[in-house]
């Protein structure tokens, strides 16, 4: 069964069929980006978890491959990561042609037990062999999962590091290995900051501060569910240092403020590619929320919009005296940009009668003395289909409101999500639309809000001055070339 065409994204990764959740095993290998993902090879519900597989040379056009790692009597195949075993440290490949090595969570039932297992591929990721000595790391616990492995090469030496979670304890557990098979405990991090849900899908990586390549810091991503900023699933991040043994988060100038990767409802379990240069650190997340994903079924029973976020390049920038993660969509080619400039808006004004199904809207608005502005995306068939972005100048807040459209999705689906922005008179936004999704990048990509939308067609874009006149300096729409 193929997802219905009204919601199947043009630009974002979507599986050919069936259930999908977290991205797994993101790795760049021999010129191709490999994306594995949590899938159910047999249906549209969260069951029989296995790793689906696709690959791409540009992160936009994906070739679908057969299911890579299947569940079996030892358990389901939960989330994890893939590394290129350079130097053949595991002995599972050769020095000239190292194996791809996957570390994933083997989730056994009766009794519940989650441990880390290994599979390897010597044909560039197409077929996988489970290691005979699995599991390779077992703490005897039931919620130990989502191993992300990377090569550490620093003052403490050169070895593999795994970060996984004890989900219920809200702890990131760090281990080291010389061969990807034998693992030794290094340290634990947490619980810290956002702890109102279980911790899942960690990632730990170095990142340079923009404009100062010598200033390299470490970023720890922790997804949590529930307890996310917009309700349900969300992701916090910590900036700090990793000395090869321990990760220590910087003290936040504002106390215990939580840094959120995304302020929307639908950005979860995001992790980054292995084997890319530090300056190319790229994240993909699952565009959904455990609060309602089970209800995202279309009338014909297929799962509506199982999809990933746009791939986002990460960097660190200084804002208000502290560092922030910046995300910028990568690789999308645009065409047919239509630009309007210098338009005063008092009431509401339709600026584009038609905007593309998939593409980018860039906006620069001077709020002047008004209370704020609103951007309305209207759809054919009237008001139920309105998605509204509102900027409140006093509160320095941007909100995205979405509705159910003309199909009832879930009680928790309609609503508004809020994100703080730097404020000032001049507001710049970059908005990506792809049929049934929206991703809003503000403050140069240091504030991001990602939401699924109800399926819609035929959009127009209107701008409205709220509490006075505003001035559109520039507004542009461009089609994405899929
Ligand atoms: C996150 C998660 C992971 C787990 C996987 C199971 O969405 O719950 O912690 O490995 O999904 O599908």
UniProtKB/TrEMBL annotation:
Record-level Gene Ontology MF annotations: hydrolase activity
Keyword Hydrolase: yes
InterPro entries in UniProt: ConA-like_dom_sf, Glyco_hydro_32, Glyco_hydro_32_AS, Glyco_hydro_32_C, Glyco_hydro_32_N, Glyco_hydro_beta-prop_sf
SMART domains xrefs: Glyco_32 (SM00640)
PROSITE patterns registered for this protein in UniProt: GLYCOSYL_HYDROL_F32
Domain Glycosyl hydrolase family 32 N-terminal: 12-329
UniProt entry keywords in alphabetical sequence: Glycosidase, Hydrolase
Glycosyl hydrolase family 32 C-terminal domain span: 363-476
Superkingdom to which the source organism belongs: Bacteria
Record's keyword annotation contains NAD: no
PANTHER family linked: EXOINULINASE INUD (AFU_ORTHOLOGUE AFUA_5G00480) (PTHR42800:SF1)
Family label: Belongs to the glycosyl hydrolase 32 family.
Protein name as it appears in the record: Glycoside hydrolase family 32 protein
Organism: Microbacterium profundi
């Amino acid at each position: 069964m193929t997802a219905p065409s009204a919601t199947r994204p043009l630009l974002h990764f979507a599986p050919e069929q069936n259930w999908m959740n977290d991205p797994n095993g993101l790795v760049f290998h021999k010129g191709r980006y490999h994306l594995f993902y949590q899938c159910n090879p047999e249906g549209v519900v969260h069951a029989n978890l296995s790793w689906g597989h696709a690959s791409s040379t540009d992160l936009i056009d994906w070739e679908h491959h057969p299911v890579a790692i299947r569940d079996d009597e030892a358990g389901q195949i939960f989330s994890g990561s893939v590394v290129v075993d350079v130097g053949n440290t595991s002995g599972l490949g050769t020095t000239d042609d190292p194996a791809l090595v996957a570390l994933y969570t083997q989730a056994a039932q009766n009794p519940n037990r989650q441990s880390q297992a290994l599979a390897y591929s010597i044909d560039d990721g197409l077929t996988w062999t489970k290691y005979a000595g699995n599991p390779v790391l077992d703490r005897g616990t039931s919620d130990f999962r989502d191993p992300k492995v990377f090569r550490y090469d620093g003052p403490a030496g050169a070895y593999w590091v795994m970060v996984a979670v004890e989900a219920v304890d809200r702890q990131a557990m760090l281990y080291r290995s010389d061969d990807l098979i034998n693992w030794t405990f290094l340290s634990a991090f947490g619980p810290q900051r956002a702890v109102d849900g279980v911790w899942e899908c960690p990632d730990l990586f170095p990142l340079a501060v923009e404009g100062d390549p010598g200033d390299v810091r470490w970023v720890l991503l922790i997804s949590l569910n529930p307890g996310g900023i917009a309700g349900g699933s969300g992701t916090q991040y910590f900036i700090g240092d990793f000395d090869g043994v321990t990760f220590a988060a910087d003290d936040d100038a504002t106390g215990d403020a939580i840094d959120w990767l995304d302020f929307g409802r639908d950005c979860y379990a995001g992790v980054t590619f292995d084997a890319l240069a530090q300056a190319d650190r790229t994240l993909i997340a699952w565009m959904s929320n455990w609060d309602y994903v089970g209800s995202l079924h279309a009338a014909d029973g297929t799962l509506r919009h199982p999809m990933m976020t746009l791939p986002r390049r990460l960097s660190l920038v200084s804002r208000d005296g502290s560092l922030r993660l910046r995300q910028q969509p990568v690789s999308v080619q645009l065409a047919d940009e239509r630009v309007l400039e210098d338009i005063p808006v008092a009431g509401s004004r339709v600026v584009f009668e038609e905007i593309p199904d998939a593409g980018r809207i860039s906006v620069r608005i001077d709020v002047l003395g008004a209370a704020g502005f609103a951007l309305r995306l209207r759809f054919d068939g009237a008001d139920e289909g309105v998605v509204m972005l509102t900027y409140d100048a006093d509160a320095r807040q941007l909100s995205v409101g979405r509705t159910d459209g003309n199909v009832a999705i879930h009680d928790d689906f309609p609503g508004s999500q809020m994100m703080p922005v730097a404020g000032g008179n001049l507001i710049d936004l970059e908005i990506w639309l792809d049929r049934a999704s929206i991703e809003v990048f503000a403050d140069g990509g240091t504030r991001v809000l990602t939401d699924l939308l109800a399926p819609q067609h035929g959009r127009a874009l209107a701008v409205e001055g709220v509490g006075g006149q505003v001035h559109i300096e520039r507004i542009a729409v461009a089609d994405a070339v899929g």
